[in-house]
Amino acid sequence: MAHMTNPLATPDQLYQRTSFSALPSDLQDIIFFTTQVLTQAAGVLLRIPQSVAAQAGVILARYWLIASPLSHEFSDTSAAALFLVAKLSAHPCPPRDVCNVYAYLLSPSSPLFRSPSNPSTTSDKDRDPSSYYLSESAYTTFRTRILSLEARILYSLSFDTHVALPHPLAVTYLQALDFLSAPKTEIAGRAVAYLNTALLSPQLLYLTHQPNALAVAAIYAAARDVGAKMPECAWWEVFDVEREELGFLVVGMRSLEGWARKQRDGFEELGKGMVTRAFVEGEMRKRGLRIGNGSGGVVVEVEDEEAVMMRRLDEKAAELEG
Length: 322
Hints:
The protein has 322 residues and is mainly α. The chain has three domains: 12-163, Cyclin-like (Cyclin A, domain 1), CATH 1.10.472.10; 167-264, Cyclin-like (Cyclin A, domain 1); 288-321. The chain is 58% helix and 4% strand. The chain contains 13 helices and two strands, in the order H-H-H-H-H-H-H-H-H-H-H-H-E-E-H. Strands 1-2 form a two-stranded antiparallel ribbon. The model has no long low-confidence stretch (mean pLDDT 85).
């Protein structure tokens, strides 16, 4: 059964992620969400199977339990995780393809993360290919960063890249519940959509629950959406899932859309493109925080009040001069 289970996050790892020395929770969540979306979008453009992109998302989440997201640019970590997982699969991607795809997704010509109402958003015919053209030197630099991060990810995870996805189990459970027949195929599609959505959840559902629980929750949520008749007994227990765990996962999967909409309204940056490390550092400065180097790596520290006042005066002076 080992190939059907995953190593889950420990309480210490989850506490370290949410401890006072880490990023503010809202910034941490938006970094995770946007980076996972970027990873999935890159997988689509690279024409690799969804299973590969999903595994890359899980590897990325595991790495960020150990290393701070602020250690590197978020898009670089995404590219390294996707490149690593694709290399280990039957669908490897050349480094140049990966770099070109990310250059496009991060360029002003990409519609990813851009609001339709944003004036900077361009139509297909108005996109400028030069905005995502990679020169030889830029490609070499980008490739070097990806290869370096690939090694860091492998070392941090002790070379354990095993990821069991819930999608195959979901198909088996759907068949057992007779939800794969012609009139009920919509349930299967919705269940897979919920499983893909769970990859983006800042609640780290793939790191805190086993694939069988995720599969059952996705099927339950999909069946409720279409009003399908479910077995009257506690059928989830047959698949080794408790009612409390099922309820938590269903709520987590169904609430992500509303959460993402709320974040878009709260962070104007989400309508302008991919969230960057520079944007996060700017948000932290507004809150009197700064990035420092601790014994365990990158940490977030509270700025001295005098330093905050002097920095704001400098910023105000720069605005007046401009």
